[in-house]
Write a structure and sequence with these properties.
Elements: H1 3-30, H2 44-90, E1 100-109, E2 114-116, E3 122-123, E4 126-128, E5 148-151, H3 154-163, E6 168-180, E7 184-196, E8 209-218, E9 224-232, H4 233-236, E10 244-245, H5 247-254, E11 258-259
Parallel strand pairs: 7-11
Antiparallel strand pairs: 1-2, 1-6, 1-9, 2-3, 4-7, 5-7, 6-7, 8-9, 8-10
The chain binds zinc ion (2 copies).
One zinc ion is lined by residues 131, 133-134, 137, 139, 141, 144, 146.
Length: 260
């Protein structure tokens, strides 16, 4: 019998217990346990002792049952965790045996500009992943989403770029602890090797782009932030000089080579 079925049975039993208790009391009454008559049907002490046993013993049996079921489900959980660990260490968890070279998308936000993941976390060209959910995590943690992600195939990242026209395609190498997925990796350390610049302006999508332009954006969690886009001369002509950056300046600010 499975632990869940056992637990359900026990809970049903506990719910029935008060009804059973009333039933037993009624029965005891009819058997003369509470009457003053000299000759009850069954000896009064026998009925009373059975009552005490019922009141004392049955809850004890339930408690024992729950303890047993609890121990069994704890054991099952430990077992399943052990199995999952085995799964991770034997199959999809191919530590440095495979060079984790990949592609991904990044935004450029903030002032001074920073590389930023699509979910809003900023990072340097060479950085260790941090966990937003649990501070004590050293990413990647199997049960968590933390760590640096990257696609193995260039075309997967390229396809994602068509869905996120405000982002840039970057080439990365991942190091340290890592998980291998069907389409890529999740790892502890990331080094950004290159950022690909779009040829067309990210604003009008028509003219060739030349300059980085910062614009104020409504961001994640409803805060505002600066986002940098690579724009054409025409689109950037309306922008103040303080909100513009040359390719060379951006390269120095990010410490990442920029390529057309
Ligand atoms: Zn985490
Ligand atoms: Zn333009």
């Amino acid at each position: 019998m499975s632990t869940a079925t056992l637990r359900r049975g026990l809970i049903r039993g506990v719910r029935l217990y008060p009804i059973l208790a009333v039933g037993v009391l009624v029965l005891a009454h009819f058997l003369g346990a509470f009457s003053k008559s000299e000759n009850p049907l069954i000896s009064r002490s026998l009925v009373l002792n059975s009552l005490y046993a019922f009141v004392g013993l049955v809850p004890l049996l339930f408690i024992t049952g729950f303890v047993f079921v609890g121990a069994r489900s704890d054991h099952a959980m430990v077992q399943s965790q052990r199995n999952r660990k085995k799964l991770i260490t034997s199959d999809p968890f191919l530590l440095p045996s495979e060079a984790m070279v990949g592609y991904k998308l990044a935004l450029i936000t903030n002032r001074p500009p920073m590389l930023t993941g699509l979910t809003g976390e900023t990072y340097y060209a060479d950085d260790h992943a941090r966990c937003d959910i649990k501070e004590e995590h050293i990413p990647p943690i199997a049960d968590c989403d933390c760590g640096f992600y990257a696609y193995r195939e260039y075309r997967d990242a390229k396809f994602e770029l068509t869905l996120n026209p405000g982002a840039f395609l970057i080439d990365v190498e991942l190091y340290g602890m890592g998980f291998v997925y069907t389409k890529g990796y999740r790892a502890e350390v990331q080094q950004v090797n290159k950022l690909s610049l779009p040829r067309r302006c990210m604003n009008c999508h028509l003219l060739p782009a030349h300059t980085f332009v910062a614009k104020y954006k409504l961001g994640y969690y409803a805060n505002t932030f600066w986002q940098w886009k690579f724009c054409c001369t025409l689109c950037s002509s309306v922008t103040k000089n303080e909100n513009k950056m040359t390719v060379e300046d951006m390269k120095n600010a990010l410490s990442v080579p920029l390529h057309h």
